[in-house]
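Quick question about two entries, pasted in order.
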Amino acid sequence: MAKVRQKGTGAELALRRELYRRGLRYRVDYVVLKRPRRVADIAFPDLKIAVFVDGCYWHGCPEHATWPKHNAEFWRQKIETNRLRDADTNSRLLDAGWTVLRFWEHQSPIEAAETAAQTVAMAKRRAPPAGADKKN
């Protein structure tokens, strides 16, 4: 398990490349919650948008997840715990005013980037202009 990549997976890198190609700038492995510590794969902190790219196996994708036969109870519990943590993260971030985007690793990075780009554009339209809250 120590050799399983947790950051910079192929799906995550493909999404980051596509976002960058579209001119979007973002933070990588950004701490969105301090307690409990939760880290977004990609974040737009000023707009409060957190993006997660979930592995089909590790997060129990309904289309592609397979349940292991060896040590089945341990792995089922591990994957279910990941799902519960994902739901908890979503809930805490939504309560804190963040927009949460979750993509499965099997999803097209182009389609995921399009969704993220639309979300960023909408957030920018809602955000007050820079310096608008300052007094003259």
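Here is the second entry:
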Amino acid sequence: MPLIPLQQGVPTSVGEFVSQYGEALISVATTAVLFLVAFVLIYFVGRSVLVRLVRGALNARGYDPKVVNLGGTVARALALFAALSLAATIAGFGTVLAAFATLLGALSLAVGFAAQDLLANFAAGIFILKDDPFGIGDWIEWPSSNETKSGVVQDIGLRVTKLKTFDNELITVPNSELADNAVTNPVADDELRIPFTFGIGYEDDIEQAKEIIVEEAATVDELKGDPDPDVILTELADSYCAVSRQLKDIAASV
């Protein structure tokens, strides 16, 4: 069996160094240059084409600018990973590529478990921006912890939505809470019918009371005439209050 020398000695001159390590250095340099050239070409070409296609498709479908920008960012990230993978394959880094894929899969799994709520809010934010159930400046209502909350939308982000309550408080609501519950948008159609309950005595004329209510409502400039105010008898209760006083109170509060 032939003997294989484990150590060839330390080169003492440039010639010995080139003779001993020249082929290995040339191989490493060639592989590195091939990897860099392939990565640069694939990344810049892929990023240019992919980002343009993604942004164009999202703009054509009328998505919110935040969603379009997010799509462009994701497209650039995909172009980066694709360029690294293809360049490593071309350069012959198969072992490195396999190790990188294993590590990336493990990291993705760990991040996914650790940030479930964050990812859920992120996905909900995308759907809110896409479906457009409400916009900035809209007054909305939604159920939360066995009660109904309401506020005016100040900002819609990819993770949270900021609203200002009628008590002038700023609240931050996770997007998943708004996406998973029924949200009421009373001002979506720019018109809102608001019911008021009036009570009259049993001895009073119902038809006359209806006429008075409609006439008084017509004097309130803030109320729109289309559709016209209407009065409907709902119940015969066991108490009453003065119609004229309620109408004055309502007119003063509008």
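Reply: The longest strand covers residues 147-156. The CA atoms of residues 53 and 75 lie 9 Å apart. Hope that helps.
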